[in-house]
Design brief:
The protein has three helices and eleven strands, in the order βββββββββββααα. The chain is an alpha+beta fold and 181 residues long. It has one domain: FomD barrel-like fold, CATH 2.40.380.10. A hairpin with a 4-residue loop joins strand 6 and strand 7. The longest helix is centred in the C-terminal third of the chain and has 20 residues. It is globular. InterPro entries: DUF402, FomD-like_sf, Ntdp-like, SA1684. It catalyses: a ribonucleoside 5'-triphosphate + H2O = a ribonucleoside 5'-diphosphate + phosphate + H(+); a ribonucleoside 5'-diphosphate + H2O = a ribonucleoside 5'-phosphate + phosphate + H(+). Belongs to the Ntdp family.
Amino acid sequence: MAIPLEGETIQIHSYKHNGRIHRVWQETMVLKGTKNIVIGANERTLVTEADGRTWLTREPSICYFHAEHWFNIICMLREDGVYYYCNMSSPFVFDNNAIKYIDYDLDVKVFPDMSYTLLDEDEYEQHKEEMSYPSVIDQILKSNVDKLLSWIHQRRGPFAPDFIEAWTSRYQFQRKLHDND
């Protein structure tokens, strides 16, 4: 598998279990790329929905993808703190200059005080039936929800106190480099 390079601009493609495209983020700058982890950042990037509707993201975000965990984490930097939107998803692959993953509907929204809400359980149950998710996928996702919640409680990964500061600084550095090109 190819590895995205630091400073490179890539897309993010979200699919559904049936293989259909769900959502595309047009531009994300790679801050770190290894075979297991990609950390990126974007701000006011164009997002295209499956039905063709488009919108711009409102705030700067740091995006965390892992090739071994069944979730990804979007850290949205707002005036009143960092909000985290965690998608239960397949591990990512990097292909044709894009991060690609399957979105499995379940989401966890984490607030600046680290309280959280599990979202879209009804959508998950509906799609599980409609798209015939295998029972092994259901088990993997449920255990990864538990893993994600333990990361939140333990302040691991993107929830660690210094994560946002470190990657926001790296993003500002990369933007200056690109502005000077």
